[in-house]
Structure formats: structure tokens, C-alpha cells
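Lab meeting, item 3. Inverse folding demo.
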């Protein structure tokens, strides 16, 4: 207790220097919260948006479907599997879909693209990004609807407008070429050119009839989660269950490797930036503590001559680092909370920099810069900066403990 009090008093002998160093730790808290919070927010938004564009956070499909998609590779007993998946607490929605390649033709032109067959009863704005992005007309209403909803650029290429007919041609379950007619009921704009120019939504039952599928056969089941971070654990758990042994259970990293790769690169850059911040903070702490040690050589010499052991002297300087870290973290928390609340609720509108539409890895994002922190990120920042301060103070403490008493007394 006496050593703690002594360390606290020593720390405030030079108030200006202590406050400057504590402020650097506080600034580190602010920057770490901003960088980490931006990552937690944008990565989650990107992953969730990618999941809503078709495959979900977890995809359950027939064997080898993801590597080489084909209408001949179909998932059977989809209704039964959906019921099983809906019982899981991590799951927010379970949607059966059919996906395939098709040639879309109007009276004037033909364009190749991709279709996703959906059950409108299962699709909502929370699990289907295209519902949020509808700009004209309406979404499909029933599984046997005769309509088609397509991207605005695809409609432009085909020179189509609402109410016009379009013929889509694909291959059925036997590999035969089949065609059907639909009428344009809605148009969506995501801001991603590849999607807007080559994707269309069709009613599930109509496509099942065209492809020769049974009523409970689909291409895959898209599983959306309350928290995307649970995708890896849940995927592994499903793979171990007997009901899914003969199927392909993949998480979003496997179904969207481009997005996963871009996030991994961005995370690496984020970590490098935070490492540089940590090095700057460490340099400031080492400088402060080392100057304090060098200025007190006489004091340490007298203390050791009076019987203080090198171990206790090391502990004294480390306690000073401890209180410096605590002070810096407290100041950091005080100045960071208002900033975090503002960025969490309001954020910064970057529309002027990115335009109205901003995509990353083929996924649409909004242009409002916000931050959010997961609980483990908060703990990681506090423990990381606190540990950094203690580690930075270890060398000055070691130097202090190695000062010979005679050398310290000579400075008197």
C-alpha cells in the first residue's frame, strides 16, 4: 500500500510530462476505438449485405454445388431441412432458393445472366437486399407468379420496361434446354454493375416446373444468422450432424471468397495502422519513464543504500507505469464516449466522396461512416493498451533496479 502511494506521488512530480504521456494513451484509445469500431461496423455490414444477396451466412446445398453449380445438382427434402434449421437459436431466417444461368431475351435483344428463384412468402427486406433496392414496380407476390424482377441495367440492355414480356432459357434437371415466358413486374438497383446488369428474380414454383424439380427440391438453402460471427462454429456443428452428412454446408467465406479476401486484406491494413499507433504510444511511455529514472538516480541510490532491494525498486517504477496507464485509459474513456456515441448513432456522410452508390467486393454499402464495437473488441483495446503501457515501462524499471547504490550516492 505504501509502495502504491509512493508510486502515485512520484508520477505527479512532473504534472505536465505525466499529462502529456497520459494524453497520448488517451489518444491511442480514441484511435483504436475508431479503427476497430469502423472495422466491426463495415465488415459486419458487408458480410450481412453479401448474405442478403443470395447465399446467406451459411449455405446448405447438394455435394459439390458451390464448386460447379448446375441445375442437375439439387437439394432434396428442402422443407424438412428448413424446419430443422429454423429451430437453431443462432438462425434469424431460412430461405429455399434456386439459382442458375439463363439467357434472357426480349423482342429486340438477348443477354446472358443469372436468375434466383424465390418464395415471396419467405423473403423480407431483412433477408433479401433486392427488396430494399426496388426502384420501380413491385416484388413477386406468390411462388407461381408469372412476373420477373430484374436489375435496371439488365432491363435497359433488353430494352424492357414494366409489363413487357421476357423469355428466359436455361437447362433443366436432365440437361435439356427449356424456356419460359415472364412479364417484368419490378426493377431493382443495387449500385453494383455486375448485379444490376445480369441478375433477375423469378418465382420459385414456376422455376421448379420449368426445371423439372419436385416441390421440395431447390438449389440451396440460405441460412441467415443474428450474428455473422457465429457462421464458422455453426457450419462446423451442422457438418457433424447426421441429417447434413450427405450435403455441402459452407459459410460465407467459402461461398463469397472475393469478399472474404478483400476483408482479410483490409483487416491486415487496419492492424498495421494500429501497430504504428502502439509503437508511437510505447515510445512516449518509455521516454517519460526513462527520463524519470535518470532524473532520480540520486534518490534511487539513497533508497538502495537504506535497504530497498532492486526487486522492490523495479516494482516501484512498474507501479508508476501502472498508474500512468490507468490515468491514460480513464482520460481516453472520457473523451472517447461522446465521439463513439455520435459515430454510432449519426456517423459521417461520405456521399460527396464516394457518390450515392458505394460497393466493396461486389457488395453494396451505404456511404455513411459509422463505428460499432463488439464486446470482445472493447476488452481487447483496454487490455492491449494497458499491457502496452506496462511493457513499455519494463525497460526503465529494469534500468532503475540496475543502478549501483554507490553510483547513485556519487551523484549527491
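The presenter then showed the designed sequence:
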Amino acid at each position: 500500500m505504501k509502495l502504491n502511494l509512493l508510486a502515485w506521488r512520484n508520477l505527479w512530480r512532473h504534472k505536465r510530462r505525466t499529462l502529456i504521456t497520459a494524453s497520448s494513451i488517451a489518444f491511442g484509445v480514441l484511435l483504436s476505438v475508431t479503427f476497430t469500431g469502423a472495422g466491426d461496423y463495415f465488415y459486419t455490414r458487408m458480410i450481412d449485405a453479401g448474405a442478403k444477396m443470395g447465399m446467406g451466412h451459411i449455405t446448405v446445398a447438394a455435394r459439390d454445388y458451390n464448386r460447379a453449380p448446375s441445375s442437375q445438382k439439387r437439394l432434396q427434402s428442402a422443407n424438412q431441412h428448413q424446419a430443422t434449421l429454423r429451430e437453431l437459436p443462432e438462425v434469424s431466417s431460412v430461405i429455399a432458393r434456386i439459382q442458375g444461368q439463363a439467357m434472357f431475351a426480349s423482342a429486340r435483344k438477348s443477354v446472358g445472366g443469372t436468375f434466383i428463384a424465390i418464395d415471396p412468402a419467405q423473403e423480407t427486406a431483412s433477408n433479401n437486399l433486392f427488396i430494399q433496392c426496388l426502384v420501380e414496380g413491385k416484388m413477386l407476390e406468390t411462388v407461381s407468379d408469372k412476373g420477373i424482377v430484374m436489375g435496371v441495367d439488365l432491363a435497359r440492355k433488353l430494352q424492357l420496361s414494366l409489363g413487357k414480356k421476357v423469355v428466359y432459357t436455361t437447362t433443366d434437371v436432365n440437361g435439356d434446354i427449356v424456356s419460359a415466358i415472364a412479364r417484368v413486374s419490378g426493377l431493382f438497383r443495387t449500385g453494383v454493375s455486375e448485379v444490376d446488369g445480369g441478375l433477375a428474380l423469378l418465382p420459385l414454383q414456376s422455376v421448379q416446373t420449368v426445371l423439372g424439380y419436385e416441390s421440395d427440391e431447390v438449389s440451396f438453402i440460405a441460412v441467415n444468422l443474428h450474428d455473422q460471427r457465429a457462421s464458422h462454429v455453426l457450419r462446423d456443428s451442422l457438418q457433424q450432424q447426421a441429417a447434413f452428412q450427405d450435403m455441402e454446408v459452407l459459410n460465407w467465406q467459402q461461398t463469397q471468397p472475393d469478399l472474404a479476401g478483400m476483408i482479410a486484406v483490409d483487416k491486415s491494413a487496419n492492424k498495421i495502422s494500429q501497430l504504428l499507433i502502439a509503437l508511437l504510444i510505447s515510445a512516449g511511455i518509455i521516454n517519460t519513464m526513462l527520463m524519470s529514472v535518470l532524473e532520480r538516480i540520486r534518490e534511487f541510490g539513497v533508497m538502495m543504500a537504506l535497504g530497498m532491494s532492486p526487486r522492490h525498486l523495479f516494482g516501484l517504477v512498474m507501479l508508476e507505469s501502472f498508474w500512468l496507464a490507468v490515468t491514460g485509459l480513464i482520460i481516453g474513456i472520457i473523451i472517447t464516449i461522446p465521439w463513439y456515441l455520435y459515430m454510432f448513432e449519426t456517423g459521417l456522410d461520405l456521399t460527396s466522396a464516394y457518390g450515392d452508390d458505394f460497393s466493396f467486393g461486389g457488395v453494396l454499402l451505404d456511404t455513411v461512416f459509422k463505428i460499432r464495437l463488439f464486446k470482445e473488441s472493447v476488452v481487447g483495446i483496454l487490455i492491449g493498451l494497458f499491457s502496452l503501457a506496462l511493457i513499455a515501462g519494463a525497460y526503465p524499471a529494469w534500468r532503475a533496479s540496475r543502478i549501483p547504490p554507490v553510483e547513485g550516492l556519487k551523484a549527491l
